[in-house]
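Curious: why these numbers?
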Amino acid sequence: MTSIADAAWLKHRGLQVLLAALTEGGEQARIAGGAVRNTLLGEPVTDIDIATTTLPDDTMRRAEDAGFKVVPTGYEHGTITVIAMGRAYEVTTLRADVETFGRHARVVFGRDWKADAERRDFTINALYAEADGSVVDLVGGLADLRARTLRFIGDPETRIREDYLRILRFFRFFAWYGSGRPDAEGLKACARLKEGLAHLSVERVWMELKKLLGAPDPARTLLWMRQTGVLTAVLPESEKWGIDAIHALVEAERVFGWPVEPLLRLAAILPPDPARVSGLAERLRFSKAETAMLVAWAEAPLPDASLKEADFLKSLYRAEQKGIEWRLRLALAAARARAPDSDKALIEAAGFRRLLDIALRWKKPAFPVRGKDLVELGFAPGEEIGRMLGQLEDRWIASGFTLSREQLLRNVEGRPQAPS
């Protein structure tokens, strides 16, 4: 029998006490879903969910009697959060859907484990584990997990119509756990029903896309999304723009040890068009920080790979530094991908890496002159001071940021004469 008994998280005393409390008097409780899946795959476990036959009020009473704090986070849907010895667990009563309304469903509580499993989305997400680690598989999830096959439970179209977000979840889970080709029936259903994505909240769409783009290598998944029309449905801004850059970026991340940045990976499949990316950020309701970063990338100029350091630093000072870093990362990744067949690309790759190293080391210097310095010299506050500050800053940049405040002020043009 398959078991996860060696999992460190399963041995936590708080979890074992909670499971024992929920199984007293003939009731049952099992670990459900992602924690079981990830443990079997050797992946990190973050959230631990519990399914139980106890009704919500009984769940709360049993947890409190065990000395744990309870929070009725999803009481109407049977979900109670239990804080057991410093760790949070979501405990949900077994359910069966009666009616579905997009992401909402009218449910009834029950005691049928198979019915509970069959209301979940994919077979690999419907695995359970007993307190001793024994894995319970009621829908063929173990075989699919071994084959790295992502498969809907039951009829794919029926499951998608219950919640159109499952289209994006299908691709997201395939990016993280799938191999080979996606399940043919699931793929066809996603393609046929992609118009339903328009009914989803944009926040949920971006959340799924961000998780997908954070997968180890989402390149194959994005290709399937492109071929089914799903990518254009959720990211029309990427239409007629290549997605090959994703694979090159992932390879560069691996070689250079760059952190995975989903937003940078998104930029890799978009044209660097400030108006287009601003519209995308507004449409998907990006955070202010996400919007600023994506626009900074789109607005940043791509330096010539042969640019001398002094000239590069001047352009770096004028632009948003992180935006130029992103342009260089993508340019370096693309040049590396072409390098095996092109000496020119090999030279460009070396040049882009040199500039990126400079940018990563560089700390933007502070212009040493302020408006009050000019006022102290006798200039009247106003537009003239702004114009002169601009001229002085140009002079300071041209010097390679070496001129001091005193040197700059010493030769101010049009400096008022002191009265005799």
Notes: Residues 98 and 107 are 5 Å apart (CA to CA). The chain has four domains: 1-147, 148-234, 240-364, 371-410. Strands lie at 29-32, 49-52, 69-74, 79-84, 87-93, 95-101, 104-109, 127-129, 135-137. The two ends are 101 Å apart (CA to CA).
